[in-house]
Design goal:
- This protein is α/β, with parallel strands linked by helices.
- It has a single domain (48-228), classed as SGNH hydrolase (Rossmann fold), CATH 3.40.50.1110.
- The protein has helices spanning 5-14, 30-46, 56-59, 69-80, 96-106, 120-125, 129-146, 165-182, 210-228, and strands at 48-54, 84-88, 113-117, 151-155, 185-187.
- A five-stranded parallel β-sheet has the order 2-1-3-4-5, sandwiched between helices.
- β4 (151-155), α8 (165-182) and β5 (185-187) form a beta-alpha-beta unit.
- α4 crosses α9, α5 packs parallel to α7 (129-146) and α7 (129-146) runs parallel beside α8.
Length: 230
């Protein structure tokens, strides 16, 4: 797999810097309104939430969010008639430390599956791998403290050797270490089959095109699907 290393470094660092009137039908009476609202509330209660928590890869940097892999997964879920909602909580430029700072806010709503895709920007900034590992573990711990039965899927990332081969290897090993320690499902490399493939990435050489996101969605689905069937 070939990476556009220099472009990858520059782009992900820069990623951190970045009336129509409709007619509505009115129910015949207040009882109809009540029944409609009650049915909607019951439907929402039946649905479970998948929280996709990540950086620019999850956010769909450079493309319409509807083309990002969490939205593609939602389309698949809907086509199967499954009661799940895919929530895209990606933020371009996000680090593991930034994710740790905002996880509590995201946990205000129920989370049944957490797909955690963070750390790539840590590696590009030269953050100590031990710090990244600690932050990822704390995010998982806080999620489980709030929702003990949550399923954790950890998406791994790799970085170019700009900071040396030893650092790149130490960084890559963080994800397997966290997955083992926290009993999380591991996706070894979220960009498998996409990273370094020019036609699957935007001109920056790193952020996936819609076609690239389709491949990522398939990769994530392989780890996700066994948890979402009734």
């Amino acid at each position: 797999m070939k990476f556009h290393f220099f472009t990858l470094f520059i782009v992900l660092i820069l990623g951190s810097c970045e009336s129509a009137t409709t007619k509505t039908s009115v129910p015949a009476d207040s009882s109809d309104i009540h029944k409609s609202e009650q049915a909607q509330n019951e439907s929402e209660l039946d649905q479970k939430r998948i929280l996709f928590f990540g950086d620019s890869i999850t956010a769909g940097y450079g493309i319409d969010e509807k083309q990002a892999f969490p939205a593609i997964i939602q389309q698949k879920i809907d086509s199967l008639g499954l009661p799940w909602i895919a929530v895209n909580a990606g933020l371009s430029g996000e680090t593991s430390a930034g994710g740790l700072r905002r996880i509590d806010w995201l946990l205000r709503e129920p989370v049944h599956i957490l797909v955690l895709e963070l750390g790539g920007n840590d590696g590009l900034r030269g953050v100590a791998p031990s710090d990244t590992q600690e932050n990822l573990e704390k995010i998982i711990d806080r999620t489980r403290e709030k929702y003990p039965d949550v399923v954790i899927i950890l998406a791994g990332m790799q970085i170019p050797p700009n900071l040396g081969q030893d650092y790149a290897k130490a960084f890559a090993s963080v994800y397997s270490a966290v997955a083992r320690k926290k009993n999380a499902q591991l996706i070894p490399f979220i960009l498998e089959g996409v990273g370094g493939v020019s036609e699957l990435n935007l001109p920056d050489g790193i952020h996936p095109t819609p076609q690239g996101h389709s491949i990522i969605a398939n990769t994530v689905w392989e780890s996700l699907e066994k948890y979402i069937y009734p």
